[in-house]
Every structure is written in C-alpha cells, then in structure tokens.
C-alpha cells in the first residue's frame, strides 16, 4: 500500500482558484478532506491556467511535468468547458448564428474525448484511479437563455462519466443556493469553493 495519496488537479480558473485571496480555491480544502478519507498524507499537484479552453488544455497536458503528475495521480480533477461556453457566446453575439453553439459543443466533445484518452494511455499500467469531471455552474443566472447554454455544455461533460470517471454537478447546488451569494464576478468566492470541495467529497462516498 502506498504511504501517500497523490491528487492532481488540471483545468481552468476554477482549479487555479481565481476569485479568492492567494488563489485558494477548492484544491487545498479538498486535499485536506482527502487526507481524512484515505487516512494518509496527500500530495497535491495543480496545473491550471485562467481563461483556458478545452483545446488549450490539450496543449497543457503535453508538458512532461504535467504528464508525470497525471501518471502518478490516484485522483484527478478536471475543470474545463466554461471558457468554451463564454467564447461561443461572444462569437454568437457578433452574428446570432445558432450554429456557433453547436460547433462549440462538438469541439468540446472532441477535445474531452482526446484529453481523457491521453490520460488513460498515461495510466494504462495503473489498476485504479479516479477522474472527477467538474460540471459548469451558471455565472449569469439573470440572463434568460443562460441555463440552457450551461445545461447543453454539461450534457457533453456528463457524457464522459463511466467506469472510474465521476461527473460533479455544480449547476444544481449553485442554483439552489443562489449563485450570486457564491460568486465574485464569474468566479466562486470562498463559500463557493467550499461548495465545490463538498460535492467532490460527496461523490467519492457515493462511489464507494
């Protein structure tokens, strides 16, 4: 049995911790909870970039240091897709062509498929590991069409949850708890990140 548990987090500004002092997002409190769950020290590795899209994340995981941390990880969290949605919306506002959303969803699906296949190939010799795919919340709940957009992107992310991959629903809790109380601008505040960490923990208990 390994004396330590290795947690690797990859993704966008959520993984980076944007919106909180010193970038303290969900990864640190989540790692603390992992130590309690697995009863061993947790080594945490974070590779994140604010504003990154799914296509840019594919480039990030080509970095040998990122690949090494993914290879050694017992658990991996992935936050991606939010900037794909925001980028698609900005393009939509230039000509109001609904095909823009369809193209963005198809590209996200392709990018996630490739991303996860890359991770699986890195870990082909490992008997057990967990990937948690973090869904999107709605940063603009006051806009009438925003929930549909978020739901459409979440359907793509959720479609990849099988075997050792878990989808983490953030849209529901952020909606029920009034996301305006959980956000600073479009990013979670400390309370919002605690909600994310809590749902990551809950999903592990459901898995067992």
**CATH architecture identity:** 3-Layer(aba) Sandwich
| Shape annotation | globular
CATH-defined topology: Rossmann fold
**Proportion of strand residues:** 15-25%
Pfam family, one: Lipase_GDSL_2
InterPro entries: Ester_Hydrolysis_Enzymes (IPR051532), SGNH_hydro (IPR013830), SGNH_hydro_sf (IPR036514)
Domain SGNH hydrolase-type esterase: 9-195
Protein name: Lysophospholipase L1-like esterase
Could you describe the 3D structure shown?
By secondary structure, the protein is α/β, with parallel strands linked by helices. The protein has one domain (5-207): Rossmann fold (3-Layer(aba) Sandwich). The chain is 51% helix and 15% strand. The chain contains 9 helices and 7 strands. It has helices spanning 13-16, 27-38, 54-60, 64-72, 82-95, 99-122, 146-158, 171-176, 190-207, and strands at residues 5-11, 42-48, 75-79, 130-134, 165-168, 183-184, 187-188. Strands 2-1-3-4-5 form a 5-stranded parallel beta sheet, sandwiched between helices. Helix 7 (146-158) links the parallel strand 4 (130-134) and strand 5. Helix 2 (27-38) runs parallel beside helix 9 and helix 3 runs parallel beside helix 6 (99-122). The longest helix is centred in the middle third of the chain and has 24 residues, at 99-122. It is globular.
């Amino acid at each position: 049995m390994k004396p330590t548990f290795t947690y690797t987090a990859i993704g966008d500004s959520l993984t980076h911790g944007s919106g909180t002092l010193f970038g303290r997002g969900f990864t640190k409190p989540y790692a603390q909870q992992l130590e309690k769950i697995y009863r061993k020290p947790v080594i945490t590795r974070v590779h994140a970039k604010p504003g990154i899209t799914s296509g840019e994340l594919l480039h990030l995981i080509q970095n040998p240091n990122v690949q090494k941390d993914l290879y050694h990880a017992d658990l991996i969290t992935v936050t991606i897709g939010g900037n794909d949605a925001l980028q698609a919306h900005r393009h939509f506002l230039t000509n109001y062509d609904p095909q823009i959303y369809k193209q963005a969803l198809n590209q996200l699906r392709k990018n996630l498929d490739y991303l996860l296949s890359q991770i699986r190939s890195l870990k082909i010799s490992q008997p057990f590991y967990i990937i948690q795919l973090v869904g999107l919340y709605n940063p603009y709940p006051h806009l009438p069409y925003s929930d549909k957009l978020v739901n459409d992107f979440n359907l793509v992310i959720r479609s990849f949850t099988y075997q050792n991959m878990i989808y983490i629903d953030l849209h529901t809790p952020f909606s029920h708890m009034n996301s305006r109380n959980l956000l600073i601008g479009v990013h979670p505040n400390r309370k919002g990140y605690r909600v994310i960490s809590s749902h990551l923990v809950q999903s592990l208990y459901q898995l067992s």
